[in-house]
Amino acid sequence: MGSISLQKVSKVFGEAKVIPSIDLDINNGEFVVFVGPSGCGKSTLLRLIAGLEDVSGGKVVIDGKDATDAAPSERGLAMVFQSYALYPHMSVRNNIAFPLKMAGMPKEEIDKKVSDAARVLNLTDYLERKPRQLSGGQRQRVAIGRAIVRQPSAFLFDEPLSNLDAALRVNMRLEISELHQQLKTTMIYVTHDQVEAMTMADKIVVLNRGNIEQVGSPLELYRSPRNLFVAGFIGSPKMNLISGDYARAQNAATIGIRPEHVSLSTSDGDWRGTVTVAEHLGSDTFLHVNADGVGPITVRAGGEFGVKHGDTVFITPDKSRMHRFDDKGLAIPAAA
Amino acid sequence: MAPKDWNGASFTRTVPEWAAECLSGFGGLFFTRERALPSKNFRSGLAMATLHTRSAARLMMAPSVLLLLAWMIIPLAMTIYFSFLRYNLLMPGMEEYAGFSNYSYFLTDPAFFTAIANTLLIVVGVLLITVVGGILFALLLDQPMFGQGIVRILVIAPFFVMPTVSALVWKNMFMNPVNGLFAWIAKSFGFQPIDWFASVPLFSIIIIVAWQWLPFATLIMLTALQSLDEEQKEAAEMDGAGAFSKFFYIILPHMARAITVVVLIQTIFLLSVFAEILVTTNGGPGIQSTNLTYLVYAQALLQFDIGGASAGGIVAVILANIVAFFLVRLIGKNLEA
Ligand SMILES: Nc1ncnc2c1ncn2[C@@H]1O[C@H](COP(=O)(O)OP(=O)(O)OP(=O)(O)O)[C@@H](O)[C@H]1O
Ligand SMILES: [Mg+2]
């Protein structure tokens, strides 16, 4: 079991209204990612769910029971912190065993659970070490181990990968996704990295200034962002946003077109422009083009597209993949 | 404790290291030199590159090392010299070599054993009170509360009061059996007031000294407490640790280093408590509150026996080193990162 529902949850720190009012339903077994720019209240929201902060208003319902006033340990949730928060003076074994020990479980049972968790997480050889004798990735796994032995009804992750290097991050991302497949436990995962959000989530919650901008599956958000903020936030490189005459001609205040939905040619096309920067990534090339009468446009071209700074190119947006936004920044449905 | 950047790191001594060295006294000098050098494999790895730097560094350290050495050696040597003389201020010009007789008098004096016991009781008693009290105060002061800044300053204040002054304040204002606050409290509850310095002299001194050292312990414990990662406490909370488990499994181990520092530094000073005894009990009644320092003082300035007092001083130094040796072995490992 692990369904969580937030009902009109708000949080005020002194004068600052960090979270005005949030309603959100998280189903059992879902992998939900909170994503948003720094300072938008992701961590705060997670800590409200965990019970580490008290809500200023509204209700937190866990498994159908009102848990608004329950202590963190009574909520049956486990959290993995950004700093891992391992207990430095305890061995890996004792770190993982700690929640079980606190629950008063008999010793044999604890030993069994700890060695099971260690096996799943490839930590068996490190059980007697202290956290400071481990690498970042290993520490991360210990933190996860400490969370899974409790068999919580949901896991909460607060930017667990942000201290790891890029390669390890990709690895751990896969491991956490795999873990979710195995355990099928609800997971709530906070990140500001939209690649993590897109690759891991069943459901993404895009937050901005303490408000939910949109909730949906990664592809839903990619295909039909509800507003300019989501459009700009989801997708990498960012969607091109064009305002001005061209947008007005399409009956919109702003037009959005993703870099991958713009085709490129050296001979002819809708817009003519000069390449300012060409980023060759091998598999892809991102061209920053200054298009005449439209402004700067990012274009995703094939890997070995041989243009360089100063070249003149012609670009054509795919009209069927264009997003139109009104003057309030809300998406205009395609049918209208 | 292997220095990472030996040019920089090895010269900067942290407080605990300093304490450990002071404590180990003479031995400390040699410990220090050894520890100041990089670890073995580090040394072999960079031997060629740093050989030159190292001898240059030694050369530059030499003046201060020599000065410090002289500073310590001369008084110590004079004390040792006096301790082998029959040297009484009442009989000037009658000094003569006395062999170990000063030592044998001092060591067989029944007052000597009482003084050792009293010295250790003061050290242990004050340490117990200040460590436990310091932790409790630190926990209290760590809570957000109204007027936190002022309360913290007030708690630190006793540390700034001179030992003689605070001992007199305690003697006359609190522990006086007629006019003292404690007597007044006892009387207002209908009890017989305690004559502190007559009936429990050593305990009274322990209380006074503990009161003076409590701020120091509190301060060190408080900084340790504040350096505890907030997320660790929260993790423990989520793991189901109650207040007591959190304290014993998370907070106390985190403070181990601070506690060690407090114990080491305070031991140095507590082995030689003097002013508080002088202005309150004068070591009495009888010798009930005489510690080693006071015994040496009594020997030298009340009986004018410089030779005997010097022998006592040397014995005290040796005892302090024995205490330091065991202490560092016992808890010194807490200081290693
Ligand atoms: N204890 C607090 N007291 C006052 N303001 C706070 C407190 N904690 C957070 N805030 C404020 O609440 C806002 C949201 O903070 P939060 O930590 O939730 O951001 P975040 O989305 O997790 O950002 P990041 O991606 O940088 O971690 C910030 O503006 C922050 O300044
Ligand atoms: Mg955060």
Automatic annotation (TrEMBL), chain A:
GO MF annotations in UniProt: ABC-type maltose transporter activity; ATP binding; ATP hydrolysis activity
Origin species: Metarhizobium album
Designated name of the protein: Sugar ABC transporter ATP-binding protein
Family that this chain belongs to: Belongs to the ABC transporter superfamily.
One GO CC term on file: maltose transport complex
Keyword Nucleotide-binding annotated: yes
The UniProt record lists the keyword ATP-binding: yes
Keywords (A to Z) from UniProt: ATP-binding, Nucleotide-binding, Transport
SUPFAM superfamilies: MOP-like (SSF50331), P-loop containing nucleoside triphosphate hydrolases (SSF52540)
Entries under SMART domains matching the protein: AAA
Bilayer topology term: Peripheral membrane protein
InterPro entries in UniProt: AAA+_ATPase, ABC_transporter-like_ATP-bd, ABC_transporter-like_CS, ABC_transpr_MalK-like, ABC_transpr_MalK/UgpC-like, Mo/tungstate-bd_C_term_dom, NA-bd_OB-fold, P-loop_NTPase
Compartments reported by the entry: Cell inner membrane
Every ABC transporter domain range: 4-234
